[in-house]
From TrEMBL:
Record membrane topology: Peripheral membrane protein
Subcellular location, record wording: Cell membrane
Domain of life: Bacteria
Keywords, alphabetical: Amino-acid transport, ATP-binding, Cell membrane, Membrane, Nucleotide-binding, Transport
Pfam families (UniProt xref): ABC_tran
Cellular component terms per the entry's GO annotation: plasma membrane
PROSITE patterns noted in UniProt: ABC_TRANSPORTER_1 (PS00211), ABC_TRANSPORTER_2 (PS50893)
Similarity comment text for this entry: Belongs to the ABC transporter superfamily.
Molecular function, one GO term: ATP hydrolysis activity
Official protein name in the record: Amino acid ABC transporter ATP-binding protein
Length: 244
């Protein structure tokens, strides 16, 4: 069963086509890495999944249910709950502690009782290696620590799918690995993940499938070993020769 399906999805900004006839299926428990040059439409593709952007034509199905169209606000809230997202910029609430950031969604949106939300948030912070930093504010945490709080915050909503949009691109090199390790352990726990990344090592090691996008289109979709050792498309070879 696919958790996320794109069926012939296109998106234009004004007259500028950004996604062109994208079809993709993400199965439960799969990690799909989306790679490709800047401007390829990778972020737009992810943003359409939780409807931060609306696709123009085609269908996006989450758990078999089409999204977009004349969606009611309630359905949008449920969608955003089903789909967790982690951005390049961590976007934590600066006035809340790490614990407060992770508790906020469950308490305000899910109406989880505070005591329970706190327990769950503590467990999540432990899971991302930040048990000892729960009381700190974002300004007191390193970039890598903030991004791990952002991951815990997304997980607190108990999403069925996690989207990562260049989650490590804004980090100093020494902090990239600590975030990738958290992502890798989530994948090992069976989380369904759609990961836009420039970390080719991560894509190769952790992803079940690699999707190369360029000019709003899927150029190639393969198992990582095939993609990195024997890509089918000239466009893929050209991309790999620049990034590897
Ligand atoms: P990527 O994440 O692969 O770098 P994006 O999805 O961010 O690509 O962008 C794809 C194209 O869409 C780019 O040409 C970008 O300028 C354009 N684009 C993205 N967001 C908007 C927007 N809100 N309005 C107009 N154009 C946009
Ligand atoms: Mg992007």
């Amino acid at each position: 069963m696919s958790i996320v399906s794109f069926r012939d999805v296109s998106k234009t900004f004004g007259s500028h086509p950004v996604l062109r006839n994208v079809s993709l299926d993400i199965e439960e428990g799969q990690v799909v890495a989306i790679i490709g040059p800047s401007g390829a439409g990778k972020s737009t593709l992810l943003r359409c999944v939780n409807q931060l952007e609306r696709h123009s034509t085609g269908e996006i199905l989450i758990d078999g249910t089409p999204i977009g169209g004349n969606q009611r606000k309630r359905d949008l809230i449920r969608l955003r709950q089903t789909v967790g997202m982690v951005f390049q910029s961590f976007n934590l609430w600066p006035h809340l502690s790490a614990l407060g950031n992770v508790m906020e969604g469950p308490v305000t949106v899910l109406k989880t009782p505070v005591a329970i939300a706190r327990q769950q948030a503590e467990a999540l912070l432990k899971q991302v290696g930040l048990a000892d930093h729960a009381a700190k504010y974002p300004g007191q945490l390193s970039g890598g620590q903030q991004q791990r709080v952002a991951i815990a915050r997304a997980l607190a909503m108990k999403p069925r799918v996690m989207l990562f949009d260049e989650a490590t691109s804004a980090l100093d090199p020494e902090m990239v690995q600590e975030v990738l390790r958290v992502m890798e352990s989530l994948a090992a726990d069976g989380m369904t993940m759609l990961v836009v990344t420039h970390e080719m090592g991560f894509a190769r090691k952790v992803a079940d499938r690699v999707v190369l996008m360029a000019n709003g289109q899927v150029v190639e979709e393969d198992a990582p070993e095939t993609f990195f050792t024997n890509p089918k498309e000239e466009r893929s070879r050209a991309f790999l020769s620049r990034v590897l």
